[in-house]
Amino acid sequence: MFHWRLALALLVLSPSLCLALTYEDDIEVNYGDPFYNEITDAETTQPTQSTVPCTGPDLTKWDKMFSMLENSQMRENMLLQYADDIIKVEMDSLRQEMLRFVAQYGGSCGTAVETAGGKLALQLDNRFKEILEHLNTHENTNVKSGGLQLEQLLQQLVVSAHSQTSRLVKLETSCFIGLPSKTGFQHSKQHHEQEVASQPGYLEAALVALQQSREELEEVLSSVKQRYLPGGCDMALLFPMRSRRIYTSVIPEIPQPLSSFTACLWVKPNGVTNKTVLISYGNRQNPFEIQLLLSHNMAQLTVGGEAHLVEASGVLNPGGTSPWIHLCGAWSSEQGVATLWFNGKRVVIAPGVAEGHVIPPGGSLLLGQERNGCCGAHAVPGFEEGFDQKLAFAGKMTGVNIWDRVLSEEDITLLGQLDSQSCSHRGNVVAWGITEMVPHGGAQFTH
Q1: Rounded to an integer, what distance in angstroms lies between the CA atom of residue 264 and that of residue 284?
Q2: Which residue in 348, 356, 379 sits closest to 366, CA to CA?
Q3: Is the peptide bond before 180 cis (omega within 30 degrees of 0)?
Q4: How many other CB atoms are there within 10 angstroms of residue 188's CB atom?
Q5: Which of 207, 263, 266, 238 has the alpha carbon at shortest distance from 395?
Q6: Peptide bond between residue 323 and the one before it cis (omega within 30 degrees of 0)
Q7: For residue 439, with 0-12 CB atoms within 10 Å meaning exposed, 13-18 middle and 19 or more buried, which class applies?
Q8: Measured by CB atoms within 10 angstroms of the end CB, which terminus of the chain is less buried, N or C?
Q9: What is the DSSP letter of 359?
Q10: CA-to-CA distance for 45 and 11, rounded, in angstroms?
Q11: Packing angle between helix 144-172 and helix 61-137, nearest 10 degrees?
């Protein structure tokens, strides 16, 4: 009985003893090792699994080709972006250097250009004013409306020239002075870049406008030359057409015998035929004592008759309208030396022309026509059957003067200058503006 109870007690206490032993083992394991997160022996004894790489589906050759294309496109884009960045940086650096250079040296350049432009504008302005003053002084009362139109056109050109000069000065100022300085360069960079970029268009427009103004100025100057009277003369004789009724008689006639003379005039012919009479003096016995003629491209001088003829070729442009030219014919009875002068230059000299001859007084002196022997000096006005239409002069004539001596070379050279005051040097036989001259048949004085 005792043995049975002892076995029963042991059976009951055995689980508690096992539990205590178990707790005791856990405490020894947990607190005996001072390290944490260590791999235990149990864990190391567990077998490790081998890693197998993930394998995808096999790629076809087309997939590989598209993949290569995508990679090359990506590389190309990267290279282009890199190149673009480099170019932008370099261009920005170059632009900054250029603007710094212009800001440093543009002031002196702009001042020089502005000074040159101002001088040019001043010269043009002075030239315009001279033309306007001349037109106001010598305005033709018979063509007053045309003169006013020409004056208005010149005034418009003056205003246009001032406007173009002002625009050019503003452009130069904005181009050179208005560029950014070193201190404020970055602050106004974009504004000045736009301004500089827009300047070539303004420059081109200014050049075109100046070219147009120049062409208009040349046309106006050409028109003014057509109306301009040379030698400081303030009036001219107009012969509108060739006609046997159109001429001008000079009063008084030659008052005394002449053993020498110099006859000069300014002439602007509309056309020249085989024989065109400028000055003709004669009487009933010899209507060709003195003649100053034009023939095609030649100037001719006759003394004492048509047998004594001196001519100079190549002084005229045959056909069409000629500009103002100055002609002088001189003769001396002592050695019969005759000379012809064209625009102040001697073009021919001939000795032995009517040597010892004397020009008789009391004859008839005509301009633009000659009187033949039929009617003499006592022809009735309006009865000019003795005139020939083919010999008549058509055009303008001014500064007609005759001296009773041979003028010096210096005097004739001075008279032949276009801008001289030759009309103020009047002859002692015929004086332009003083001696009475009577137009006939449509000839008239004009300014």
Answers
A1: 25
A2: 379
A3: no
A4: 14
A5: 238
A6: no
A7: middle
A8: N
A9: B
A10: 36
A11: 140
Rounded Cα distance between 415 and 420, Å, is: 7
Mean pLDDT value across residues 5-25:
55
Q: With 80 as the cut, is the pLDDT of residue 251 above it?
A: yes
Decide if pLDDT at 105 tops 80.
no
Token readout for 335 is 């050695």
Residue 138: the pLDDT is 53
Do the beta carbons of residue 363 and residue 253 sit within 8 Å?
Answer: yes
What distance in Å separates the CA atoms of residue 225 and residue 203, rounded to the nearest whole number?
32
Separation of CA 378 from chain center = 59
If we measure between CA atoms, which residue out of 405, 402, 375 comes closest to residue 387?
375
pLDDT digits (tens, 9 = 90+) for 117-143: 666 667 666 766 776 666 665 554 444
pTM of the model: 0.54
Give Cα separations from 126 to 60, 121, 129, 214 (angstroms). Answer: 90, 9, 5, 15
DSSP per-residue codes, 181-240 = -STTTTTTHHHHHHHHHHHHHHHHHHHHHHHHHHHHHHHHHHHHHHHPPSTT-S-EEEE-
Amino acid at 334: E
Q: Which residues contact 188 (CB under 8 A, 6 or more apart)?
A: 180
Amino acid present at 390 = K
Note whether 286 and 305 are within 8 A (CB).
yes
Q: Are 243 and 358 in contact (CB under 8 A)?
A: no
Tokens describing residue 257: 């015998």
User: H helices then E strands: how many in the chain?
Assistant: 6, 14
Task: Give per-residue pLDDT as tens, 333-378.
Answer: 988 999 999 999 999 999 999 999 999 998 899 999 998 654 444 4
Cα–Cα dist 364/443, whole Å: 18
Query: What length does the chain have?
Result: 447
Of 381, 376, 405, which Cα lies nearest the Cα of 282? 376
Give, as one character, the DSSP assignment of residue 407. Answer: P
Question: DSSP 3-state assignment of 411?
Answer: helix
Mean pLDDT of 222-240: 79
Distance separating alpha carbons of residues 179 and 193, to the nearest angstrom: 9
Model pLDDT for residues 270-320, shown as the tens digit of each residue? 888 888 999 999 988 888 999 999 998 899 999 998 889 999 988 887 655
